[in-house]
Design goal:
It is found in: Cytoplasm. This protein is α+β, with helices and mostly antiparallel strands and 191 residues long. Helix content is 28%, strand content 38%. Strands 5-6-7-8-9 form a five-stranded mixed beta sheet. Helix 1 (14-31) packs parallel to helix 2 (72-89).
Length: 191
């Protein structure tokens, strides 16, 4: 497993890196087995330490957790507990969805854009309705089943997920509705 442990404007010692490595190995091997990459970032905000942890699994799923505490070790341990809880909750679903999968989840890099916020007053009319692009990036679009997409969205704690449906190859979206349920958009035309 590739592990990146870093601190924002702070120096982390070898003892902290060893603690993070050992704890993540324990958490992930208990439930998922095959981590590919982990990124743990620490920062300090006033008197609190913040830990953001993300683990990418060989199945293509990513789990994330973050926590705050007045102690740096306690912040990481709390984030690791949250990750442990997520993986424990989805253990059966992970096994069910991926028992027949021989290859890792395919990801295709698609362009994504950041648009400028149109900040105009009521008196001022915009010259054009075309948005101003201020950044262009590449976003991975995973090929997943609908169940895997819902699980990935919940593990990553996102409000929505755009994915390529493994059953027909079309682009789909799953999202968290205001009522707490999950919505699914499948724009295929039914003939």
């Amino acid at each position: 497993m590739r592990l990146q442990v870093s601190g924002k404007q702070m120096d982390l010692g070898d003892a902290m890196r060893t603690h993070v490595s050992d704890r993540l190995d324990d958490v992930v091997s208990k439930y998922a087995g095959r981590p590919v990459e982990a990124v743990v970032t620490f920062s300090k905000d006033a008197h609190e330490y913040k830990c953001d942890a993300s683990v990418h699994l060989s199945t293509g799923l990513t789990t994330q957790a973050s926590a705050r505490s007045t102690e740096i070790y306690a912040a990481f341990d709390s984030a690791a507990e949250k990750m442990d809880k997520q993986l424990r909750r989805y253990k059966r679903r992970l096994k069910d969805h991926h028992k027949d999968r021989q290859d890792p989840v395919e990801a295709i890099g698609e362009p994504s854009y950041v648009l400028a916020n149109p900040d105009h007053s009521e008196e001022e009319e915009p010259d054009s309705l075309q948005p101003v692009i201020i950044a262009e990036m590449e976003t991975p679009v995973l090929t997943l089943s609908v169940g895997e997409a819902v699980m990935q969205m919940e593990l990553a704690q996102k409000q929505f997920l755009v994915f390529r449906n493994s059953s027909h190859g079309g682009v789909n979206v799953v999202y968290t509705r205001d009522d707490g349920n999950v919505g699914w958009i499948d724009p295929r035309r039914m003939s």
